[in-house]
Amino acid sequence: MKRKTSTLSAAVIALFALLVIAPMSFAESNAIATMARILTELNHYPSAEHKAALAAISEDKSNSEATRAIAKAIKNVEHKAKADDVAALKVVSETASTTAEEKQLAEIVMNLNHSLSPENKKALEALVL
Questions:
Q1: Average pLDDT in the 110-128 region?
Q2: Does the residue 92 lie in any domain?
Q3: Angle 99-100-105 (CA atoms, 0-180°, nearest 5)?
Q4: pTM of model > 0.85
Q5: What is the pLDDT of residue 117?
Q6: Using an 8 Å Cβ cutoff, are 70 and 86 in contact?
Q7: What does 78-111 look like in DSSP terms, one character per residue?
Q8: What span, in angstroms and rounded, lies between the C-alpha atoms of 105 and 92?
Q9: Would you say residue 27 has pLDDT above 50?
Q10: Which residues neighbour 70 within 8 Å (Cβ) at sequence distance 6 or greater?
Q11: Enclosing H/E stretch for 44
Q12: Count of structural domains within the chain
């Protein structure tokens, strides 16, 4: 009986991982790729279409706080990130639990000034894939 219980427990855990954790990870990586693509297409400020996508990312509770803060900052860009958003991005870049991709995006947005450097474009293109 004990073996059946442990097998059942393992199956429930595996099912939970597939149904709950995996989609959250996919949503997060999809949000990162979307923001990276938007930054590569950015021309001084995000388009209406980009702002809508960024608003959806920033409001989606399945995304991390860091991802939501980055989306909000990109949505508010007008030639460069706003001071309040830069402060939030600084917290994102200094938080231990923030992913490497989130830190990279936060740094790029913090340093954005009208357009991207060739190095930043190349880094973003890698995140889109």
A1: 87
A2: yes
A3: 100
A4: no
A5: 86
A6: no
A7: BSB--HHHHHHHHHHHH-TTS-HHHHHHHHHHHT
A8: 10
A9: no
A10: 35, 89, 92, 102, 105, 106, 109
A11: none
A12: 1
Q: Is residue 67 included in any domain, yes or no?
A: yes
Residue with tokens 């340093």: 111
From residue 41, give the alpha-carbon distance in Å to each of 34, 35, 37, 46, 91.
11, 10, 6, 8, 25
- Tokens standing for 39? 């930054």
**Which residue range forms the structural domain that includes residue 92?**
25-128
What token pair was written down for 91? Answer: 């917290």
Give a yes or no: residue 79 inside a domain. Answer: yes
In a domain, 70, yes or no: yes
3-state SS class at 52: helix
Helices (H), ranges, the chain: 2-16, 22-41, 48-59, 65-75, 83-94, 100-110, 118-128
- In the numeric block, which tokens belong to residue 129? 């894939």
